[in-house]
Amino acid sequence: MRCLSLDVGDKTVGIAVSDPLGLTAQGVKTVLRTSNKKDIAEIGELISQYEVEKLIIGLPKNMNGTEGERCEIVRKFAAKISAAYPEVEQIFWDERLSTVAAEKSLIAADVSRKKRKKVIDKMAAVYILQGYLDSLSANDLSKGENL
Q1: pTM to 2 decimals?
Q2: How many C-alpha atoms does 84 have within 13 Å on its Cβ side?
Q3: Helices and strands per DSSP (H, E), number in the chain
Q4: d(CA 139, CA 46)
């Protein structure tokens, strides 16, 4: 089962995909937003290419856990994706601090500011997806399924 994750922003959408076993997340690309129709078509191409069954969508909650205006925007975009690709299950994932974690990781790797700007959203999508995949592994371990 492959998953695709989205870090939805106003100007870009960072995208990551899981490996075929659903263990690790890899960055795929950053889509420059042009129109909902084109953005959703590009996401659809990736859904088809990677044979995606689940879409993990980062939900930018406030630090206190509440949902604000950004969450509403993301949910509306997700609803449009769902209308176009109803066969793909959608899961919203708390993405608080994913961009911060991605930025710290890129700084630690000594990536220049200019290059960081180009890949930050894709890296945030990786953090979102890896968090989701890790939660599945943790659930399996707690049930004794991987022992």
Answers
A1: 0.83
A2: 19
A3: 4, 5
A4: 28
Q: Which domains does the chain have, with CATH numbers?
A: 2-142 (3.30.420.140)
Strands (E), 9-146: 12-18, 25-32, 52-59, 89-94
Print pLDDT tens along the chain (147 aa). 899 999 999 999 999 999 999 999 999 999 999 999 999 999 999 999 999 999 999 998 888 888 889 999 999 999 999 999 999 999 999 887 666 666 777 677 776 777 766 767 888 899 899 999 998 876 665 554 444
**Cβ burial 104-134 (10 Å sphere, 16+ → b, else e):** eebeeeebeeeebeebbbbbbbbbbbbbbbe
Contact assessment for residue 126 and residue 16, using Cβ atoms and an 8 Å cutoff: yes
Structure tokens at 28: 């795929």
Q: Supply 24's token pair.
A: 């690790």
